[in-house]
Amino acid sequence: MKKIIVIAGDGIGKEVTASAVEVLKKVDAKFNIGLEFEDRDAGGTAYEKFGEPLPAETLDACKKADAVLFGAVGGKKWDTLPVHLRPEKALFGLRKGLGLFANLRPVKVYSPLIDGSPLKPELVEGADLLIVRELVGGIYFGERCESEFVDGVESAWDTEKYSVPEIERIAKLAFETAKIRRGKLTSVDKANVLASSRLWRRVVNELAKNFNDVELNHLYVDNCAMQLAVNPKQFDVIVTSNIFGDILSDEAAVIGGSIGLMPSASIGELTSLYEPIHGSAPDIAGKNIANPMGSILSAAMLLRYSLNNSDAAQAIESAVDKTLADGYRTADIFKDGFKKIGTDECTKIICDRI
Ligand code: IPM
Ligand code: MG
């Protein structure tokens, strides 16, 4: 048996995760994987039930699982809570608690959706890149101060700090990933300004000596942001720090036309976690209109990375491709002339194609 902890979370996380579980059950029946699902709470939903966004029981269950399927957390209702009780805190607790050091965000351009891209079709057609974002270090987890007064003047600060082992760990995974893709790695930093970036670049260059078959280049983050919009096809794998990866991955996600389709994998030392990159979208929650494809494609990544089952992963990815090619569109990607579908119908159509 392969145990999967399912954390649907808040907002549309609930709907899209239910869809992904349905799809996983379909591939399980077809490929005889032996999946076993267990639900756990996190985020605002967990706060309502247990008074905290990440109950210890949830984290423990994740640690013992083969993989975690995550939906989304957050909502207006909880925005005014103190920082340590906010739903986002569950994300950081899971990232740190499971040691999810690498966040993989693939950006694929689906030809049937190309006119949904904000960029010209000829710029994006065929673009296929992967952002490898460091996820448990840097300014997200560095020392910070919410407020301090010096001579009556208030300041707040955060720190960006990276150690050699932290950089080596993420860079190694990025080199290895590039090696089995198209052999190109772009390391992104701000080495013209930041000391932490200069160390980052030095460590990446040192590691490159072990990967002669990977072509490495370095870009400053501002230039990379521009290059993603000007010529996204130049990229294969991008490796970068926590905060730069956060920003660049949102930018990269829209290249393909919709953030609703983008999956992600957060790779840990023991268990890994899979989640769509869109958030909890409280405004459309419970209306059966959310696009479940991001979550369903995250389930495909789960099969590939945590269960080493690329056939089952491929079956899901092909079913999503086919659903789009057949003209079915959820509201976020709908255009006149196509068949408009809701979350449930989309799930069923994908299952029928597996
Ligand atoms: C992401 C999100 C989170 C992050 C937020 C919700 C804290 O933007 O996963 O990219 O900044 O890491
Ligand atoms: Mg983000």
Bound molecules: 3-isopropylmalic acid, magnesium ion
Based on CA inertia axes, which overall geometry fits? Answer: globular
For this structure, the CATH topology of the largest domain is Isopropylmalate Dehydrogenase
Count the DSSP helices: 12
State the end-to-end CA separation. Answer: 21 Å
Fraction of residues in β-strands: 15-25%
State the secondary-structure class.
alpha/beta
How many domains comprise the coordinates?
Answer: 2
Looking at CATH, the homologous superfamily of the largest domain is Isopropylmalate Dehydrogenase
Mean pLDDT: 96
Q: What's the β-strand tally? A: 14
| Strand order in space, largest sheet | 2-1-3-12-11-4-5-10-8-9
Rg from alpha-carbon coordinates: 20 Å
Low-confidence stretches: none
What kind of sheet is the major sheet? 10 strands, mixed
Corresponding CATH architecture of the largest domain: 3-Layer(aba) Sandwich
Order of helices and strands: EHEHHEHEHEEEHEHEHEHEEHHEEH
